């Protein structure tokens, strides 16, 4: 007997045969794999599955609290290039790496089926509004 799939947040259960797979590695090294739908973003998935990801700005690319580290370089290459706004927010992220992205900006596609992302050990809740009076260098 299987229990029905419940929908949380902004994600929709995948249709049979259209499941995509994502694995989150939590800060303690535990792996959590989920079947998700095309178009769901990593932040919404993590929050719907009660993983530790804040997403303080609600997915508007105005903070760095949904920072993830893509574990596989080949998968990282399949994600569309980050926008200038995302790069600005990533500059504020704790533990930035060459394969860091904001979870709210990574939407699941068939090409990303099987992606594995690590949640950083810490996040910084710095938002764009914290710097509204600051000059850009």
Task: Explain the overall architecture.
- This protein has helices at residues 42-48, 73-78, 84-90, and strands spanning 20-25, 31-36, 67-70, 100-102, 115-118.
- The chain is of the alpha+beta class.
- A 5-stranded mixed β-sheet has the order 2-1-5-3-4.
- The relative contact order is 0.23.
- Residues 1-8 and 131-137 have low confidence and may be disordered.
Secondary structure elements and pairings:
Elements: E1 20-25, E2 31-36, H1 42-48, E3 67-70, H2 73-78, H3 84-90, E4 100-102, E5 115-118
Parallel strand pairs: 1-5
Antiparallel strand pairs: 1-2, 3-4, 3-5
Q: Give the uncertain stretches in residue-range form.
A: 1-8, 131-137
Major beta sheet, strand line-up: 2-1-5-3-4
Radius of gyration: 15 Å
Query: Helical element count?
Result: 3
Averaged pLDDT = 86
Structural class: alpha+beta
Proportion in helices: 10-25%
> How far from one another are the termini?
59 Å
User: How would the global form be characterised?
Assistant: globular
Strand content: 15-25%
Instruction: Please summarize the sheet with the most strands.
Output: 5 strands, mixed
The total strand number stands at: 5
What is the H/E string? EEHEHHEE
Question: In a few lines, what is going on in this structure?
Answer:
Helices cover 15% and strands 17% of the residues. With 137 residues, it is of the alpha+beta class.
Protein traits:
alpha+beta; disordered N terminus; 137 residues; disordered C terminus; 17% strand; 5-stranded mixed sheet; globular; 3 helices
């Amino acid at each position: 007997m299987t229990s029905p799939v419940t929908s949380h947040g902004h994600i929709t259960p995948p249709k049979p045969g259209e499941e995509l797979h994502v694995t989150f590695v939590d800060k303690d090294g535990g792996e959590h794999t989920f079947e998700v739908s095309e178009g769901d973003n990593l932040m919404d998935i993590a929050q719907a599955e009660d993983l530790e990801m804040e997403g303080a700005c609600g997915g508007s690319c105005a903070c760095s609290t949904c920072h993830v580290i893509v574990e596989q370089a080949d998968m990282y290459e399949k994600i569309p290039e980050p926008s200038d706004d995302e790069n600005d927010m990533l500059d504020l992220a704790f533990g930035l790496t060459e394969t860091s992205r904001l979870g709210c900006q990574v939407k699941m596609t068939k090409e990303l089926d099987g992606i594995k992302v690590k949640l950083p050990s810490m996040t910084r809740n710095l938002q764009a509004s914290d710097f509204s009076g600051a000059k850009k260098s």
